[in-house]
Amino acid sequence: AVTVIVELTIQSITEISEFSSSFKADVWFSQIWRDPRLDFTDRNYCIKNISLAAHKLPQLWSPNVEIHSSPSQNILLLIFPNGTVWLNFRVSLIGPCKLDLTYFPMDRQSCNLVFESYSFNSAEVRIVWRDWEPVSIPDPDSKNLPDFELVQFIHRNATLVYTAGLWDQLEVEFTFRRLYGYYVLQVRNTSDNFVEKVDMLLTIVVKKT
After folding, report:
1. Hey, how many other C-beta atoms are within 10 angstroms of the C-beta on 27?
2. Using one digit for the tens of pLDDT, what is the confidence trace for 41-71?
3. Where in the chain are the domains?
4. What CA–CA distance (Å, rounded) separates 167 from 161?
5. Which end of the chain is more exposed for a tag (fewer CB within 10 A), N or C?
6. β-sheet bridge partners, residue 106
7. Considering only CA atoms, which of 12, 8, 154, 24 is closest in space to residue 88?
8. Where are the beta strands (DSSP E) in 41-196?
């Protein structure tokens, strides 16, 4: 089986929607594997790698690892002398969230991203996380949203049983904590307005009587 090394870099998380139970993020998603047919070490080229345009990708074999719910992407494609292929996507995506509003506005919400090969089971392609820092967020400010803060993210892998065989699956789970200060202020302002309106109403009633 071909081993595909996966790495994910979160550029920004822009929104969490309670209405659609989803979150939006911009990510870099890398896949690295070796294809012996692309080895050009014996050609004596004075180059360290070959950079190809995105439209060349359909002409190469690829493991076809997809992110669930990824609508748009930009592609970087490199081939190294020993036949190693580095395929990097810049993706703007929408991922699912498991919303539980029981403790709103002091709640925590969980969202996730799932990676699978669309075309190959684990007998043909093994999908693994990169050994060092498989998931990263270089910019600390990317963890902060207007009303949420990213407090934790963990990665895991599993092998699932489908009709066509065993399939590797990678997952990243993000945990967000709601910044409840805004909601407390809103409740306080609403309470103050309510008291003022009651005082005005009582004054009017007293004057009329």
Report:
1. 23
2. 888 667 788 888 888 899 999 998 888 766 5
3. 2-178, 182-208
4. 6
5. C
6. none
7. 8
8. 50-52, 65-67, 72-79, 84-98, 108-117, 125-129, 135-136, 148-162, 165-178
Pairing of strands 65-67, 50-52: unpaired
The two three-digit tokens of residue 18, written as one number: 């309670």
Least-confidence region, from 41-50, 97-106, 150-159, 188-197: 188-197
Rounded Cα distance between 209 and 206, Å, is: 5
At residue 200, the 3 state secondary structure works out as: helix
pLDDT digits (tens, 9 = 90+) for 140-162: 888 988 889 999 999 999 999 98
Give the global pTM: 0.76
Residue carrying structure tokens 């999908």: 127
Q: In this structure, what DSSP letter does residue 137 have?
A: -
Give 120-136 pLDDT, tens digit per residue. Answer: 999 999 999 999 999 99
What is residue 187's predicted lDDT score, i.e. its pLDDT? Answer: 56
Whose tokens are 């190294």? That residue is: 80
Mean pLDDT taken over the chain: 85
Q: How crowded is the C-beta side of 9, counted as CA atoms within 13 Å?
A: 10
CATH class of the domain comprising 2-178: mainly beta
Residue 81, burial from CB neighbour count under 10 angstroms (0-12, 13-18, 19+): middle
pLDDT of residue 68: 75
Q: What single DSSP character describes residue 55?
A: G
Report residue 106 as tokens: 């002091």
At 118, list the tokens. Answer: 């669309």
